[in-house]
Amino acid sequence: MTNASGVTLTIKFNDPELDSEERDEQAQRLMAELKQMDELESVSRVLDPAPPEGNKSIGGMLIGLLTAEISTQNAQSVMKFLGDRLGGKAIELSVEANGKKLTVKAHSREELKSAIQAAQDFVAV
Q1: Which runs of consecutive H residues, i.e. helices, occur in the chain?
Q2: Which of 12, 36, 82, 104 is disulfide-compatible with 115, CB 3.0–4.6 A?
Q3: Are 20 and 12 in contact (CB under 8 A)?
């Protein structure tokens, strides 16, 4: 999923203290909140391209992972929203814009703030 004129965000909940079901619940809650935002072009779960035999993820979805497509103009407001919603959660955020990709990890509110700022700066370039 690549948005040629915008930004693709991939958010992975990766708190080692949570089991896969709890990480997946976090992703589902965030996805429901993001779907209510007008700024997003789309938000969806990420399909597992090669699900292992007997895997527990429903419909071949990767656990705790979602992706969103936004326009460059709306990137700042969506990043602020994510900063407000995800503070204190262990996540990995990948931002793809202008043919480049940036991946940052955060395990605390302070790290998330720095990660969101790096992502905003990356998109603004």
Answers
A1: 20-35, 75-86, 109-124
A2: 104
A3: no
Contacts of 117 (CB under 8 A, 6+ apart): none
Burial of residue 99, with CB atoms counted within 10 A of its CB: 0-12 exposed, 13-18 middle, 19 or more buried: exposed
Give this prediction's pTM.
0.83
Longest dimension (CA), the chain: 44
Query: What is the tens place of the pLDDT at every residue in 19-70?
Result: 999 999 999 999 999 999 999 999 999 887 776 666 554 557 888 999 999 9
Return the residue matching tokens 């896969």. 20
- Structure tokens given for 2: 């690549």
pLDDT of residue 122: 86
Task: Determine the Cα–Cα distance for residues 32 and 92; give it in Å rounded to an integer.
Answer: 19
Q: Which two tokens stand for residue 53?
A: 């035999």
